[in-house]
Specification:
Elements (H helix, E strand, L loop, with lengths): L1 H9 L1 H20 L20 H12 L14 H7 L34 H9 L26 H10 L6 H5 L1 H8 L7 H7 L17 H11 L8 H20 L4
Length: about 260
């Protein structure tokens, strides 16, 4: 067997053909099943887009390199599901450009961090991580609370997202700056914001300071929406839970001898 291997390696043409054959077989094994199913990516007609404030927070998240230490993809491993929640679905990253799945976890996965902690917790954690997680090695971002959020370019940001397929409307783009301020200013008129982005839009002072809309507001708003733009993951989670409880229910329903 080894002799045959050596002979193939000495003949570059034969080696190239052998590589192509093996690669083709592997490709067919992976690709062929995709033609036997209707959809390779889940759909969620009720999934909403990021609000201008949340998108601004996402841009800050990217700017500060948060994706280098935090992933946003829960794998289908039992320990990850038990720790972080339902495994991630492709549709949940539908409007993420670029995607932020990540490849390293110095810190925990953030795919479903939304609503897990309070705004006050996030603000304290970003200001000085050691105040809430003593063993944290994350740097401080307290200056975000002192940096006013610049909203003039948000319309262009939404327009750029629309160019790559995110369904932002002309009204959303035209009102981007005003909507960002309104979402972090609950005393303002937010009817237009809610009409454009839905009743579940979170409107409040995210960093606790009503005097201005800061970059901290934007980043906390983004963190609080992670895992909440779509409810598609709830269906697989319910199916798994039902499958797990079915055997116990069946045993409980059996008549005793």
């Amino acid at each position: 067997m080894f002799g045959t291997h050596y002979r193939i390696e000495r003949k570059s043409v034969i080696l190239a053909v052998a590589i192509m054959i093996v690669a083709s077989i592997g490709g067919l094994i992976e690709i062929a099943p995709l033609f036997t199913i209707d959809d390779t990516v889940e759909t969620d007609p009720d999934m909403r887009v990021y609000t201008p404030l949340e998108l601004a927070g996402r841009n800050i998240y990217i700017r500060e390199g948060c994706y280098a230490c935090h992933s946003q993809m829960i794998r289908t491993l039992q320990d990850e599901v038990e720790r972080y929640g339902p495994y991630s679905l492709a549709v949940e990253s539908k409007y993420d450009h670029p995607m932020l799945w990540g490849s390293k976890r110095t810190g925990p996965d953030l795919a479903r961090i939304g609503g897990k902690y309070s705004d006050q917790w996030h603000t304290a954690h970003l200001t000085n991580p050691r105040d809430v997680v003593p063993q944290s090695i994350m740097p401080r971002y307290g200056w975000l609370g002192r940096a006013q959020l610049h909203t003039a370019h948000l319309g262009d940001d939404l327009r750029a997202m629309r160019a790559v397929g995110v369904p932002y409307t002309d009204a959303m783009i035209a009102n981007a700056a005003a909507d960002a301020v309104a979402q972090a200013s609950p005393d303002d008129d937010t009817a237009g914001l809610v009409e454009r982005y839905g009743e579940e839009t979170q409107v409040r002072t995210f960093d606790g300071d009503r005097r201005t809309v800061s970059e901290m507001d934007a980043l906390v708003a983004y963190l609080q929406i992670l895992g909440k733009l779509s409810k598609a993951a709830e269906q697989p989670a319910k199916a798994v839970a039902a499958a797990a409880t079915a055997p116990a229910a069946a045993e409980g329903g059996q008549a005793r001898p």
